[in-house]
Structures are given as structure tokens and as C-alpha cells.
Amino acid sequence: MIKKTRQYKSQLAVIGSGIAGCAATVFAQARGLNTTQIGNSGALAYTSGYFDLLGADTTHYLKKPWEGLKQLRKSEPDHPYCKLTDQDLFNSFEEFINTLDKMGLGYSSPGVNNHLAMLPAGACKPTFCLPNTMIKGAQAMSDKARVLVIDFIGLQGFSAMEIVANLKSQWPQLSAKRMTFPEMETGAQIFPEVMARALEVPATRKEFARRLKDIIGDSEYIAMPAILGIHRPDFIQREMEELVGIPIFEIPTIPPAVAGIRLRELFELQLPKLGATVISQKKVQHIKFEDKIIRLLLEDSYGPVEIEAEKLILASGRFLSGGLKAGQHEVKEALIDLPIHQPDGRENWFSESYFDPAGHSVNRSGVMVNENFQPLDHQGNVIDKRMYAAGILLAHQDWIRQRCGAGLAIATAYKAVNSIVSKG
Amino acid sequence: MSKKAGYRELETEVLIIGGGVTGTGVMRDLALRGISCLLIDRKDLNAGASGGNHGLLHSGGRYATSDYETAAECRIEGDILKNIAADAVDPCGGMFVAVEGDNPEFAADFPQHCARAGIPCTELTATEARQLEPALSNRVIAAYRVSDASIDPFKLTLANVEHARLLNDSNYLPHMQVISFEKNDSKIIRATCRDHRAEIDVKIRAKQFVNATGAWSKMVAELAGCNDVNLLYSKGTLIISNTRIAHGVINRLRPPGDGDILVPGGTVSLLGTTSDSIDNLDKILPTVSEVDRILKEGSDLIPSLETTRFIRTFAGVRPLLMSSDAAEDGRKASRGFTLYDHQQQGLSNFATIAGGKLTTYRLMAEKTGDLVASRMGNKNPCRSAEIALPTDEGVRWTEPGYSARHWFKHSDASDLILCECEMVPQSAIDEVIKLAPGAEDEMTVQAIGLRSRVGKGTCQGAFCSMRVTSHLYDQHIYNNRNGLRHMRDFVGGRYKGIKPILWGEQMPQFELAETMHCGLMGLDLFEDGTKQQVDSTEHKP
Fold this sequence. Notes:
The complex is a heterodimer of chains A (424) and B (541). Chain A has 424 residues and is an alpha/beta fold.
């Protein structure tokens, strides 16, 4: 049977459905650009939920991100952030977070300073915006409040004892308890995503709250792994707090983590409501830059799909998401074979020590762009005026070490969309 | 044991320095004669060449052409180990194969050389060879079957130590480095050692001292004032594939060169080996160019290597005995061994055992045991070739696939799997930290990895190190920030063997690992994160 090719037409095609791709779609739809978004959002499940703007200068954590940005613009003139003003950065966060809020996922507002936040194993890091379900943790830590950290029999990789052992020297009123989760009491492995979905059910919340009440004693807060629901975490957090009687906050977990699943499912559900066409869990296989149109080709289980777009934003991520590929001798951009800024030879990709504060050179490889975020060749010429790039596939940044992944995603998508709009 | 100001004192009959396969072999040999020993290592078991090789139990075929004596030794010792350490041996067989471009005369002479060393060898047609090993190139010109096998050097070492403990409570102490020897006339009285973990000096009194420190044996001998040990250091690099590529050992039938051997290691294959003379033992790390060289050479024999996923590379140093024609080329140096009694150097209770091979370690231990026993007036004969090594709890977790079989057999769903690549459950970790040789308080993830399959799979410890660390906190093995520091050191150590093979499918794996270890765990800025927490609380009223 020959399957019929389905065709879509839109002003903008966004390739990638991580934070950068979704932010691009959000910004584009808000500016009246009809958008089709295609991508496989696997890597989104690896986020902690925290949105970083700039959390480290690679040797130290930064309390004051805006001051860090001033330094960065001096020390790393090629960094993508140098193509953005403070106003761009702030506005992009504000608009994106306001949109998330309207979609039903609350985040703290962008501000002046970073918040010191708890990490899954008991270390801390500064971050810019936190989900509502996690923000109380930053407050409780700075107050050294009486916090009970709970973990669960059967839940791997999240140990309340570990968190307490790491933080107690500065936080004596932190304590740990292990409990069972309702209906998951056999001792066999349980998963944060399954627990979070179970908490969407009122009866589970009631029983969970009852068990919590039994063990809280005189605690001022309960801290728990991120499991407070997938679709309405803010509501579930509030209801649980009412049932238990004290404030509750979440600590991120190691992947695959609920915070990322929340974002993925939120976007899948809400982006179409903004008017975007979303083709999820699929990768573009081929792309043609024709005179009048950019043609994207892919195939899903219903047959071939063809998307005609006037403009393109490439936000396909790095190696983990498949945006970049590493051969034995060089790094390549996977879809269009865009020129890649990269170290000369595999000998120079990685530092001698894993935790070298300077990071690894290969992590600064990526797509080169101009101030409008249009990809460039090695001579600095725009490759195709209709094409833009956003997010962590950009060159000259180290999003892991600089703690700037969300900021890069949101702000470069913002600037790329604004460039498209202003050029008409 | 008594405590004196500034140092600890220990006493034993024989102090053995070096926790490789030879040192632990000597320990077992002496314990079998009723002599009690203390074994120490600067780092931990198999930290040198014993852990940095392909785990090949030689049929002798490799040396049949060049070193008849070593070839014959390998054949005899290989057979003994297949008997006494059956649990650590995979009798997978092996093959010597020449492909187009290799010297046909060298290949044609091979059966004669084998016959001279008494090594059984059967000629195969190219078709037969490819039926047995489908991964072979279709350009095979000659192939011979031999009785190579693979052996788990970690299991062997652990079993040696465990056997000595069971026999007469002989003990092993890790991270204990000899700093100096105290002598009185022709005898060493005490060795002063540094316990790098407790950061304290330990003075160990013994009747006999054995130096089995492999590549470091020249330096340790010099500490005792002996200048008669002369070694050539040859660095060898190997790479490990994600899956097992061949059933048996595949040797290239030509004079030894890079990328000329593929050895199965349970569920993976090990491809090697380079041979580069070096002067300095400080930084023995595999490099990108070595990896690329091995792959280029190896793919002549096994074309699929070009697209194989590799998960790790590692390097070891062969401590080779210096001979006149070996000065320039490690490959021509003897694989034989020498026992130095240091009599000429004026010492009567110090011995150094150097050179040799993994396959001949038991024989090396026997010769050393003979000397030490006779010096002590002990007339018991060596029994290490007849008595099997133990396979009990605590030493069984290094075998690939064992954890998975154990877990399925016990089918206890609440015994959570901590390492998913190798299916290592909590109960295995609990057994290792209680019962494995060298187990101690606040055991590091690295030390656990040495005694189990943790960190050996596709993720190379990226995930399991986090889970194991959490488990150790839950068990109160770790009680403060040092647990995360141990984890940081473990993944930092694994990285050195990952870095040169990072491309293709390993690249996303690595990006995920770095995201977790730095972004989610904050290990790169761990101390700074701690400082931030201190600052933020100190500024509060």
C-alpha cells in the first residue's frame, strides 16, 4: 500500500523539542508566526527542573548572574550570550515563564540574584528560576529550618540519608526518614514518574498525606524527591500541604526525572493550543532549501510527512539529542551538515582531567552564528538567510559547566524569533 | 598491634610488597606451606600490569617462534591454571590467523615452532576459520587452532588473597606504601610504610621481605640498597568493546605488532596491544593515537572493528627483564622472569621477583616461595599447583554475568539492582563491603568496583556510581561529604580510560554522564558548592 504524503505549510519550522525548540514555538506563536515544531524530546527528561541563566564562571559558582554576564562578555567575546543584551535575557525569561505559568506550571520570577538550591545527592548550586514545587527548599535551606527529608523503600538513586549527611554540618536541623509509598510497598523498584502519576489520584494523595502526618513530628517542612504529579504539580503541592499541615517542597532527582517529563507533557498538550502544529517524537530525516521554500521530510507511522516553511529554526541540541554527531575524527551537524567550530583533532577534544575547571574543548564546538543567530560558514558568511539556530548546539559555550543551559535555550530562541519577525 | 606516638607497628613472618597477581601468588604459596604473611600495596589489588592486560591465558603460541622456553612454560602453567582456577578461566580456545599482506613463510613455519615447544596446534582452512570466527576478514591466508584461554586476573588475585586468609589468616592491607627499610647487617628488620588512607606511618617487622612490585620493583629494591634489578618498561594499550566480538582468542599470525590480538572477556572483547618503551612510570594513560593505531591494525584482521562501539581503553606497563638486544625494543625482550635473592647485595632476607607473565605467575610464586621457605628453614613443598583456589563469598563478583545469574536465581525483587549494565544488586555490594579481601571501613566506590562488576558496563560507572553511593549512605558506610568525594574520584578515574575512545555512540553517553555528574550532582564544583552553603548560612543572623 502506498501511503499518502501528508503536507503541512507554515511560516516557521522549528526542529527540536527541547527547551530551545519549545521556547522558539512559544515566542513565534505569540508574535503571530504560524509554526510547525518537529522533534524528539528525549533529552528533556534529563533536566533537573531548575532554569539556569548563568550559574558558574567554570571555576566558581555565581551568586550574581548579571555581574557574571559582565565578566563573561569580557572574557568570552564569542559566547552566544554576547549576542544578547541583559534586556533580551531578562525579557525572554519573563515571557517564557509567564507562558509556562498560564499553561499551569509555575516558576519563580527572574530576579537579581541566583537562588542557592539543593541538588539530588546533597550538593548545592545557584540557579536562576525554580519551579514553584521547589522554591521553598531554597528558603528552608537559607533559614536552616527544621526540615524532614523523606525517601522511599524501592526508590533508587534518591537517599535522604545522603542529602542529610552532606548538608548537616551547616544545617543541623535537617533529618531523614524512609517510608513506603501507597500501593508500592513490596520493596521492588519504584520510579518517580510512576509515583508522580499515582499522586494525580486524590485517594493516593490522601493516603500519602496520612502516612506523612505520622512521621513529621515537629518538622517545619517536608522535603521529598520530585514526585508531586505530572500535570498539576502546583495544585497537588498545595493540596498535600493542606492535608499534612506543613509546607512541602521537592528536591530534583537523577534522570529520568519528573521535572523534565512535566515540561515535555505540558508542551505536547499546550503548544497546539497556542496554534502550533506539533509533530512529536519524530526526527526530520531530510531537508531541502528550495528557492521559494524550505522543505522538511520525515516519516511517521501513518506515512511520509512533508512540511513547507518559509523560515527555519534549528534547535536540535547536541550529542545526546542527536543534533551533533561525533565521528572518529570530527564533529558534524547531523541534519544539514552545517560547518562546525571545533578543536583540531580528537586529541584535543577532552581535557586530561574529567573535572578540569576549564571544561572540555569539544563541549565548545557547535554551530557558529551571527548576531541574528543565523548559521555561518567558517568564513563568516550567512549560509541561508532563512535559517536560524538556537540552544546548546551553538558554538563557543559550555552549558554544563557554566550552568547556562536553560538561559541559552530560552534567550537564543527569543532572539532568533525576534530576528525573523523584524526582518519580516 | 600497638600504638606508639606518630606511627603504628605491625609484625608478620613475611612481608610481601605488591598486590598484583605475583605478590598475591607468593602470599598463597607461602600460606600453603604454613607461613603467615602480610601483603601490602601502594594502591590496591592489580593496580599495575596485573590489572592492565588482556587476561590472556597463553597457549604459548605467541612465543613459539621467538622464545621457546617461555612458550613451553606458558603451555604447562596454562594447563595448571585451567585446573586450579577453573572458575576464573574461560577455555574459549584460540586461533593464529594470517591475512593477505602478512608474510606467508612466517605463517607456514608456525606449526613447526609449536611442535618444538610441545604446543598442540591444528591447521584450519580459511573457510573453517571463518566458520569458527565469523568476525574474521575474508582475506585469511593461513589459520591454526591453539588452546588459548582467557582468565579473569581480578578473580585470580582476589582468590589468592582469600585463600591465604582461609589457610592461616594471612592479611592484606591496601594503600600502604613502603618508604624505607631498616637494616641490621645482612638483614632487613623493619619496613616503614605510609598508610595513605589513614595518613599515618606504619612500621612492619618481619623475618622475610618479598618485593613483587612489578614495574616498580627496581625502585623498591633500591630502597633496600639493592642495585641489581634492571628492567625495561614497555607500555601497552588495549581497548574494550561493548559486546563480545569473537568466541575465542584471535591472534594475528605475524611478528608481534599493534592490534594483533583480540581476547574475549566474558561479555566483551579486548583488543590490543601496543608496545612502546617508556622511562617514566608516573603517567601510564592510554592516548588517542594509540587507540587509533590499534584499531587501524586490528581491522585488517577483523573488519567490523571499524564500526564497533568501544567502551573503554586502558594501559599497563610490562616490566621486562633487560637483556642486551632488548634495549631498543620491548617486543624482543624476554617474557621470562628472574628471582633475585640479593645475596650479592649483602642481604639475606630480601627477594625480588620480576618479569614474567600473567600465565606464569604461579611458577614465579613457587620459585619465590621455595627461596623464602628455605631461608626460614621451612621444608614444606610447594602445593600451589595441586590445590584449587577458593570460590567462596566475597571473591565471586568479578565474573561477568555472575551477578545477573545470582539475582535471577534468588528472585528477590526488593534486592534492588544498583548497576543496570552488569546487573549488580544491593546484596552483592553488601557482600563485597563485608567479605571481599581488602574490604575496609568507608570503602570507596573504586575499591568496590575492583571487587565486582560495578562500573564495568556500557555506562562505565556513570549511573551505578550514583546508586552505589546512595546505597552506601543508606547503610551508614558514608556519614559525611566524603562519600560524594569518593564518587567524584571514582568517575574521575574511570574518565581516563573513556576519554580516548569518545566518539560515535559513546559521545551521547558521555554528554549525559557529564550533565549528571556536573550539572545534577555538582561534583566539578563540589567544594565551592559547600562553601556557598557555608556562606549563605553564616550571613544569617
